[in-house]
Amino acid sequence: MTTDTGPFTNRPTQEPYRVGFLLIENFTLIALATAVEPLRMANQLAGTELYSWKLLTATGDYARASDGITMVPDASIQEEHSFDLVIVVAGIDVTRSFSRKEVNWLKLMARRHVLMGAVCTGPYVLASAGLLDGHACSAHWECLEAMQEGFPRVQTNNRLFTVERERMTCTGGTVPMHMMLSFLARRHGQELSNAIAHMFVCDRVREEREQQPMPMHPGLACAQPKLAEAAQLMEANIEEPIELQELAALAGISRRQLERLFLKHMGCTPSRYYLRVRLNRARRLIKQTSCSIVEIASMCGFVSATHFSRCYRKLMGRAPKYERMEFCPPAEANDTLPDTMASLPSSSRQALKRARTEPTYGTFESSDSG
């Protein structure tokens, strides 16, 4: 149990602790659910209303989640509210899914000394409001580069979640539940937090200091620690790539061993894997920032924009400039999905259309495909 005495550790009063969840268009439903449910269960187990919450949108209109499901909010941010904590819930295409209305309202809440939180890609919205300047911040790995490039005053990290001073931020998926369990332990003690975890059949509560797994090498750390270490070194050295000889030495193996590990477990050479890591970062920067192609080429360790474009086209199947054009597709382009998708339910088809702006869209390759 933590002994921190920050703002998130205040003992509860007789009044319910008031939480507002600001839903950003295309928010992820799992992030919202895993943030709200621990509060519900805290009330249930305590047999009293420890927490109250409201779902909010900018105008009071429904919010559409990334899976196409629509949520009816309790209120709009244009109404008068009193909250102790506001949590921003975002998801796909976050850079284009909110407006000045949400930003200005968040600034107003901060001026009223409301504590601020964000889940999944929600930290991007808080950062856009300047509310994470000088703060440590966790966010989903998919938007970390966009935050690092767009908000240099934000101290981004790769931890699962970060709770410090008047801010609490976390990655996506089920991690909001672990952040909220930590939050509840701070306010009520570890015993209640453990009881809530037990109700959700959660056999291990993850800790704040744990790192979120990087996308290119899930599960490798346990089975092949040297391979995972080499992959992590590649992820950490993109702007100035490391020579393979030096990379192997840093991982504590020979270059030949390094090549054997990658060929056996990744199905490609270390050089090919490293190139893919750099180009995947480039793809995220193209989709999520306004940086020029020349700037992105430099950020990803390419000697020229021409060399970068050639490598990108070869691996990704299209030139970077066309990737950037698809990032801002015209409205009529929404009807260009293959005919085989015509039979999909409306909500799932619309969700798939919106997902086309995501850096990970269409990137999965089965390990059996060679």
UniProtKB/TrEMBL annotation:
GO biological process, one term: positive regulation of metabolic process
SMART domains linked to this entry: HTH_ARAC
Keywords: DNA-binding, Transcription, Transcription regulation
Pfam families: DJ-1_PfpI, HTH_18
CDD domains linked: GATase1_AraC_ArgR_like (cd03136)
Residue ranges of domain HTH araC/xylS-type in the record: 228-326
InterPro entries assigned to the protein according to its UniProt record, in alphabetical order: Class_I_gatase-like, DJ-1/PfpI, Homeodomain-like_sf, HTH_AraC, HTH_AraC-typ_CS, INH-QAR
Positions in coiled-coil regions: none
Region (Disordered): 333-370
GO MF assignments: DNA-binding transcription factor activity; sequence-specific DNA binding
Protein name (record): GlxA family transcriptional regulator
Taxonomic path: Bacteria, Pseudomonadati, Pseudomonadota, Gammaproteobacteria, Pseudomonadales
